[in-house]
Amino acid sequence: MKFLVDRCAGQRVAAWLQTQGHEVLAAWGTGPDPGDAALLQRAATEGRVLVTIDTDFGALVYVQAAAHAGLIRLPDVPAAERIRLLAQVLARHTEALEAHAIITVRGGRIRVARPPA
Fold first, then answer.
1. N or C: more exposed end of the chain, with fewer CB within 10 A?
2. 19, exposed or middle or buried, with CB in 10 Å at 0-12, 13-18, 19+?
3. Residue 50 and residue 44: Cα distance in Å, rounded?
4. pLDDT at residue 35, rounded to an integer
5. How would you write the pLDDT of the chain (117 residues) with one tens digit per residue?
6. What is the C-alpha separation between 79 and 33, in angstroms, rounded?
7. By C-alpha distance, which of 61, 62, 82 is closest to 9?
8. Cβ-contact 29, 52 below 8 angstroms
9. Where are the domains of the chain?
10. What's residue 117's pLDDT?
11. What gap in Å lies between CA 57 and CA 83, rounded to an integer?
12. What is the DSSP string of 81-113?
């Protein structure tokens, strides 16, 4: 699976995804921060699931109908906990992500939303 890891999600998350055999593009390696809309657009164009802790992407997808290739929103917790939660998401919801689902992890619960029509 292909991912674009937002700056806020962290280098350890990106490195872990790579060790799991995924193709990972790290936002901090692409130059200055282009902003959320441009980051989401790049992920969509390249067919990458965006991994973030930022809440702004939901508004881009649901309110502004921005294109995307899937989104995982993790909580702002230590990197080791983020990785543990991401491992659960990938173990249980890979098929949903391949269908461009929006997955939000909050309070230990994983919510899977289908992309807006």
1. C
2. exposed
3. 9
4. 85
5. 999 999 999 999 999 999 999 999 999 877 777 889 999 999 999 999 999 999 888 889 888 889 999 999 999 899 999 999 999 999 999 999 999 999 999 987 999 998 665
6. 21
7. 82
8. no
9. 6-113
10. 59
11. 20
12. HHHHHHHHHHHHHHHHHHTT-EEEEETTEEEEE
Phi-psi region of 100 (alpha: psi -120 to 50; beta: other; left: phi over 0): left
Cβ contact 106:77 at 8 Å: no
Neighbours of 11 (CB within 10 A): 13
Tokens 């674009």 belong to which residue? 4
